[in-house]
Amino acid sequence: MKPTFAFVANWKMYLSPNEESEFLSNYSTDLIALIPDQASLVICPSYLSLPEALKITTSPKVSIGAQACSAYGSGAHTGDISAAALAQIGISHCIVGHSERRTQHHETNQNIAEQAQLLLKAGICPIVCIGETEQERAQSQTNAILEKQLEPIKLACKGAHLWVAYEPIWAIGTGKTPTNTELEQTSSWLKKHLSDIFSDPQLLYGGSISPSEAGRLSSLSNIDGFLIGRASVDFQALKKIVRSCYTPQ
Ligand code: PEP
Questions:
Q1: Distance (Å, rounded) from C-alpha 160 to C-alpha 67?
Q2: How far apart, in whole angstroms, are the C-alpha atoms of residue 129 and residue 150?
Q3: Cβ 41 vs Cβ 35: under 8 Å
Q4: What number does the ligand 1 atom closest to the CA of 209 have?
Q5: Which atom of ligand 1 sits closest to the CA of residue 232?
Q6: What is the pLDDT of residues 122-142, one digit of tens each?
Q7: Contact 149/126 with Cβ under 8 angstroms?
Q8: Residues near ligand 1 with C-beta < 6 Å?
Q9: First-residue to last-residue Cα distance in the chain
Q10: Which pLDDT value is given to residue 249?
Q11: CB of 96 within 8 A of CB of 83?
Q12: List 20, 114, 132, 167, catalytic entry
């Protein structure tokens, strides 16, 4: 496994602000000790907890990321948070294009490219999520779907350094994960494709990462990190996931 492996914890809307700050106060020292020197952990709590999370976590091994940002730079956009505002408080990473944002907030590939572009301009590393449905995979459309999702970002962010999280929609929150062959096929195609466009892209896998699956999935050569949802709000599960990535398979 790569020494620079990245663990991204997507806390979604699972915890209240009090629970988020309690988690970080209780476990940030343990988390720092757990993450090997060149690896990194990015915790993405809710917007409300970002300033508090930044105050609590001071180690360079643990960064704080946001879960989404506006496709607009500034202005009359009620309820939105801009990339520049996230940068101003010290956010280093931001998830964009998560499938829940695509379906629940109707975000398009174009919106997502605009968000990524604004994040890069603000000095924040975008974590761009892409992935196919079960039906699309069954119809052998995976690469075509991923390519379509990436199309506007390729134009908007060509040459930039960013992270891409391959998250098959059928694996998110379902307990299903790809086989080694499935993930190897998709990730090797994707890594090559991304490397032709972006500068040193980091390819993450996300979807039902659990302590029992983490070691297997992290050992695949093109996987540079994980985007972890449900299991990341459970400190014991997160600890087991990180440990199993560093246990020989
Ligand atoms: C996610 O939603 O980004 C995710 C990977 O969720 P889960 O780990 O719960 O499948």
A1: 20
A2: 9
A3: yes
A4: 8
A5: 8
A6: 999 999 999 999 999 999 999
A7: no
A8: 10, 167, 172-173, 206-209, 227-231
A9: 10
A10: 67
A11: no
A12: 167
